[in-house]
TrEMBL record:
It comes from Mytilus coruscus (Sea mussel). It holds the Pfam family adh_short. It is a multi-pass membrane protein. Belongs to the short-chain dehydrogenases/reductases (SDR) family. One of its GO terms (cellular component) is lipid droplet. Catalyzes the reduction of all-trans-retinal to all-trans-retinol in the presence of NADPH. It comes from the Eukaryota. The keyword Repeat does not apply. This is Short-chain dehydrogenase/reductase 3. The chain crosses the membrane at residues 7-24. Keywords: Lipid metabolism, Membrane, NADP, Oxidoreductase, Transmembrane, Transmembrane helix. SUPFAM superfamilies: NAD(P)-binding Rossmann-fold domains.
Length: 302
């Protein structure tokens, strides 16, 4: 067992110099951003690409020259996104896929590999939100929230990450939520599912590094409220509601700069760090003062 002197030597000779080095590195990174990597010609799969954030991510990726593969359960919406991308002179292939069904994922992935090639960038975006009091939510809807928002990430990563590991090249993007970092009333199931997927990606990143595959990157995105239509009535006096276009642009920027975490708006990251120094009651008061949240919208027949 280490003695007090040995511990002191460790802190003085190893811990503090390393801490100082990483502080300097963080400061430099904050003021001198990384050079964006090119994604031109990369094969990118976006789930939930038929509307909202997924659609805007796909369009922004297409503007950067990526080859898009679009998954959605809604065929008409998905084809509309594909048509818009093709009108830009870029490549888009659309598939109707239910990401909760592993057989569906596997069969479509096999077809993709034959017709398009291996996925270079996987964007797990598909998600659902019911928005109601926990005690009023049906069991089937709670399970569906986790099947789409959380478990689907396991199935897509297990399908597409092996090729990335073999090449030591690739990028896995997770669309989480600020509700993963700060739970919200009437979003108990949604907040929980997004918190789980935030942890999923953090653990996955560490596992990838343990395997020595430094070329495979991960990015977790945490947007605040976004005007996608998933939430019918959003309340927030302190912050502007983001648009899907803004989120799409920030996600692609995060991919190109290989950022581990992207918060939207960007100043939310600083706010989260600052929050650690505030009393919990003050944080709760601030949230109530800003009337941050949603109006219950749950329909048990949906």
């Amino acid at each position: 067992m280490a003695t007090v002197v040995e511990k002191l030597i460790f802190f003085v000779c190893i811990f503090f110099p390393r801490l100082f080095y990483y502080y300097i590195d963080a400061i430099i990174s904050a003021f001198i951003p990384a050079k964006p990597k090119s994604i031109a010609g990369k094969i990118v799969l976006v789930t939930g690409a038929g509307h909202g954030i997924g659609k805007e991510i796909a369009l922004e990726l297409a503007r950067k020259g990526a080859k898009l593969v679009l998954w959605d359960v809604n065929k008409a919406n998905n084809e509309e996104t594909a048509t818009e991308i093709r009108s830009m002179g870029e490549s888009a292939t659309a598939f109707v896929v239910d990401v909760t069904k592993t057989d569906d994922i596997h069969k479509t992935a096999e077809q993709m590999r034959r017709e398009v090639g291996d996925v270079d960038i996987l964007v797990n975006n598909a998600g659902i939100l019911y928005g109601g009091e926990l005690l009023k939510l049906k069991e089937a809807h709670i399970r569906r929230t986790f099947e789409v928002n959380t478990l689907a990430h396991f199935w897509t990563v297990k399908e597409f990450m092996p090729a990335m590991l073999e090449k030591n090249s690739g990028h896995i993007v997770t669309i989480a939520s600020m509700s993963a970092k700060s739970g919200t009333a009437y979003l108990v199931d949604y907040s929980s599912s997004k918190s789980a997927v935030f942890g999923f990606t953090d653990a996955l990143r560490e596992e990838i590094l343990k395997l020595g595959k430094t070329g495979v990157k991960t990015t977790t995105v945490c947007p605040s409220f976004v005007s996608t239509g998933m939430v019918k009535q959003i309340k927030d006096k302190l912050m502007e509601i983001s648009t899907p276009e803004t989120v799409g642009a920030e996600v692609v920027k995060g991919i190109q700069c290989e950022e581990e975490h992207v918060y939207i708006p960007r100043d939310l990251h600083f706010g989260l760090k600052l929050q650690m120094f505030f009393p919990l009651k003050f944080v709760r008061w601030l949230k109530e003062f800003g009337e941050q949240g949603i109006v219950p919208q749950y329909d048990p027949n949906s």
